[in-house]
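Re-run requested by the PI after the first attempt was lost when the workstation crashed. Everything re-entered from the original request form. Ligand of interest: heme C.
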Amino acid sequence: MKQWLCVLLTLLCVSLLSPGAQADMPLNMTQGVTEISGKVYHLHMIILYICCAIGLVVFGVMIYAMINHRKSKGAVASQFHESTKVEIAWTLIPFLILILMAIPATKTLIAMEDPSDADLTVKITGSQWKWHYSYFGEDIDFFSILATPRSQIEGQEAKGEHYLLEVDKPLVLPINRKVRFLMTSDDVIHSWWVPAFAVKKDANPGFINEAWTRVDKPGIYRGQCAELCGKDHGFMPIVVKVLAEDEFDAWMAEQKQAAATAAEEAQAALSETMSHDEAMALGEQIYMARCAACHQPNGAGLQGVFPALKGSAIAIGPIAAHLDIVIHGKTGTAMQAFGKQITAKELAAVVTYERNAWGNNTGDTVQAADVNNHGQ
Ligand code: HEC
Ligand SMILES: [Cu+2]
């Protein structure tokens, strides 16, 4: 019996503690790709070793006592009370162990909490259910939205390799530069979590939290929202593409160029007239990507939470009121202001779509200029 226990305990220790097992054991925490994530990993391992040692001692003594001092062997319990020595020992020893654990933990925490001297600052805003990235002082900002097709989510198609962990536009960062993150939210509490960077920070409405990272290795890193934030909490992944420094600079220049072109195009779109079919096609695309999560692909909404647009008084009533709620949102509800999120042309298209889909047969075609005149 005793031998068996020894073998079992030894096996357990070997499998937990051997470095080989750690390296490819998917159950363990990732070592990540930053200095901090390495520190966090080592801290985690130190604490795990201490816990294992305590566990071995406590369970060892307990099992030894159960086996060797059992009643059938004629053991008689000793009766003693208020042993000052034992009481001091069982207070002092855990206290010392805690202090011992607090030293490396504090060091790591302090390092994690120091976002000073950053080379780049990115503001991260969570909202139901997407991330918005804005590069400070660089005039670059964009939304990052789940890119997994609905057909995979609904099971009509096999799930891809990065199912629910892929986005249309990833956050792009350089290696070897200190990046400071400012996190906030437009609605409820979200949490921006990328395990490979050991960054996990709440994004709270009305507050700004800070975090930082400096990535050592180029690559694509994935994460998720880590704070239950509503129906599509599991559908707002994070993808970070980390580039070599020169590639990053090139990307940045390209983004600025693209932003300038997009601004010109948006200006040009104001004088264009979309055909009804063109508006419906673009509108459906925008609707599925931006609105369907709440109002549902069939426009029926979710009773008591998200209103139906099929037959809704706003969607088949005057255009101005319809434009108004889509552009400005409705404060205090999950209906966001889309005026700054998508272009006038896209707004016109999605409103056209809502006014003519699912049997909403208004026949209206809204143009970018109408959106602009309404006040985007
Ligand atoms: C995060 C969830 C969410 C998303 C995404 C969303 N909406 Fe809404 N929407 C709401 C809620 C909630 C309301 C109800 C607001 C209220 O209480 O009046 C609403 C109301 C509306 C209404 C008024 C309907 C009525 O009859 O009262 C329209 C029109 C509308 N949304 C259009 C859109 C469009 C267009 C999009 C995409 C560009 C969109 N919504 C995306 C949550 C959402
Ligand atoms: Cu979230």
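Saved to the shared folder this time. The mean pLDDT is 89.
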